[in-house]
Amino acid sequence: MSTDHAAVRRWVLRGTATAVAVVVAAGAVTAAHAIGTSAEPVRPAGRTVTPVPAAAERVCAGSALRLSDDAGNDATRASTVGSATIASATTGSTVDRSTLGSSTTGGSEPELLTAPAGDTTPQVAGSSSQTVSSGDLVGTASASCDDPSQSAWLVGGSTETGRTTLVTLSNPTDVNATVDLAVYDANGTVSAPGTNGIVVAPNTQKVVPLSGFVADQASTVVHVTSTGGQIVAHMQESIVRTLTPGGYDVVSGGAAPSTKQVVPAVVLEKTQEAQRGDDTADAAPVVRLFVPGSRAARVTLGISTADGGGSMVNATAEPGVVTDVALDDFPDGRYAFTISSTEPVVAGVRSTSPTEDGRTDLGWFASAEPLTDSTITALAPGSAQRMTFVNPTRSDATVTIRSGDDRQRVTVASDGMATVTVPVSKQLVMTGTEGLVAGVTYAGSDGISGFPIRPATEESTPLRVFP
């Protein structure tokens, strides 16, 4: 984002609050004048201010990382392994791509997608995918390209022996971002030096190993907050089971704490087979929950399939600690999870699948926000790609998916789900998605992965300003 456009966006946000204050003050003055002098209040003149169209931006996760260089040296710096493939979409005329720089801790070479402003502010969207096989780093991953923000919840990760979890902090703005990491595990809040005041320079990425803050913990959740520049945060987890590579994945940010969460697209594939062998305690599928408040939550997990099947699991999540709810004996398939809770929670689902070479791969599936009526996206290449829609509303929905001249319609019943095959590497325009939640899954011989479909970026609207 250019400095001028960033300034416009920040002015509009601050101007909204200012305008409200001005309106209240003007109303009070007018009322006082009317009481003292006339029965007819004087209406102050107003002016409509229309925000200048701005460029749209999203940041993709980048490539797979390992904590060393190609020669196995410098274990304090992350280096890339291979490169991710990105698919993008826009309502504008074009999508410009640029790569954010690395810091002293290395970087995944994340790509910034920018749709230049036209007569209006455009939308931009995208996703990335990568299959890697290099030494101990073997598996497949995919992730959404996300809006810069000042808050992100990453539900996933582990720091047990053989597990490496890295948090990537990408700053696409032109000012420093000062980042705080609130790290939680099964024992509660992690108190460790270095979690606060992490400075990420403009247009760069910083890589933070989670093991620097917490050791030998099987279940983690990270809340990322920033001041100054806005951040896009992802998490990469890789596994080595004794001496055998156990897969890797990229965790996309999930929905903010809420009493209702939807993880719209999850793959469960030969999960019992994946748990055979040594060091496979974390190969069992789980729903990971965290309650950021002070009261325990009674949680109901609604688990559904596209053919109308489903089941319910009840659980309790204590406040301030990470809770993993095991998922036992589910047949192979694509699932949606609806989490209803008495207290706000964040949620994600982990699954593990065997691969054709006798190893395993893990997939992390994030919760998603409801969509607007019109949504764009593009799927990066992958095996057996599916898009899943979940309808938590009270009315049936008909979704139209357009790719060029091709169209398909999908009916999603109230409180139901639907799974469809859509093309990869093409712009997809979806209408009729108001209130629905959607995600993408891949499942092939090289592993499993998935990511949530992001809603359209909120645009600034005209504002009535009163003197």
From TrEMBL:
Taken from the record, one Pfam family name reads DUF5719
Query: Polar residues composition bias: which ranges?
Result: 120-134, 141-151
This one is known as DUF5719 family protein
Where are the residues of the annotated region Disordered?
A: 91-151
Alphabetical list of InterPro entries matching this protein: DUF5719, TAT_signal
Q: Which domain of life is it from?
A: Bacteria
Q: Give residue spans, biased composition: Low complexity.
A: 91-108
